[in-house]
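Good day; I would like, with your permission, to put a structural problem before you. What I wish to show you is a protein chain and, alongside it, a tokenised description of its three-dimensional fold. Please examine both parts with care and let me know of anything in them that strikes you as inconsistent. Thank you for your consideration; the sequence and its tokens are set out here:

***
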Amino acid sequence: MGTITRSFANNITTSGVLLPASLTNNSIANVTAYNAAIATGGMKLISSQTASNSASISFTTGIDSTYKEYQFYFIDVHPRNDNVEFQFNLSTDGGSNYNVTKTSTAFRAYHYENDTGDGLGYRTDLDLAQSTSDQYILFSQGNGADEDMVGSLSLFNPASTTYVKHYISMLQGYSYADLTVCCFVAGYGNTTSAVNAIRFQMSSGNFDGTILMYGIV
């Protein structure tokens, strides 16, 4: 017992503070909670919404200065119309208007089911140049019974009043023409106002599916 006591004492300063070096993966058992001041990392689920023949899904609360990055995950998003684009826009007034000016770049990879074609290339029809239009993040989505899309979008530091608002997305879909399409889109909302809402919708018609919003700790 004396050896254990001396070992423990060596990890405490004269003012009674436990030294960081004493904390290892095996040093503390059965921890059930951390002090709120300790950054433990990870993802925090803020909101989940499910569309059912819906025109759009909007997140108008929870996007603030709490997190420096917000991630949106799209699960089995299925359009009611065929050959449509999935898109989003940003708001600085809580969702009253979705019209943030954006500049972006985009490329995609594709491969046909029957192996008759494949490719990788830039898509000028997906990019924006100082436009308030919705940003396409997946194109040519099919509405067949088994056709859907999945993927994610990251929005960085939306509450900043100093910098523009960068975003990066990667979505994978089953195209109406029976091919797999993976789209990569990145850009920025060219505003120094805080972005506090985001809207997702199809270029035409309604859709089904679930969208999750996470804050990155």
Remarks:
- The mean pLDDT is 90.
- The helical segments are 2-9.
